[in-house]
Design goal:
Helix content is 70%, strand content 4%. It is mainly alpha-helical. Strands 1-2 form a two-stranded antiparallel sheet.
Length: 111
């Protein structure tokens, strides 16, 4: 019974690593190529290759060391590269804001 629970936990861990790599790969593919250069990050093809290898390793090669390397690459992309790409592409963190919003909230015109 304990072994079954442990194998279920390991399977869930592998699925989380796979989903993380797939999400990072899709986000890397959707970003524009010139945004990578403008953000002073590695080229789009570099990230697509690295994240594609991470997805392939998670699907076909059950070697934990290689899967952890893929997780590290995915986390680096999601935490460092993607925010820089969004900042360059104009995809700010605010949702639903108007064009008169300033850094501390909406501009009220001196009211």
């Amino acid at each position: 019974m304990l072994l079954t629970g442990f194998s279920t936990l390991i399977w869930l861990l592998y699925m989380v690593m796979l989903v993380l790599a797939v999400v990072a790969l899709v986000m890397a593919a959707l970003a524009r190529d010139d945004a990578y250069r403008a953000a002073d990050k590695q080229q789009k093809s570099f990230w697509l290759i690295i994240l594609g290898i991470a997805v392939a390793v998670n699907l076909f090669v059950p070697v934990l060391f290689l899967q952890l390397a893929g997780v590290v690459a995915s986390i680096v992309f999601l935490v460092d590269v993607r925010p820089a790409l969004r900042a360059v592409s104009g995809g700010g963190g605010r949702r639903g804001g108007s064009s008169s919003d300033g850094p501390y909230g909406p501009y009220n015109g001196g009211r």
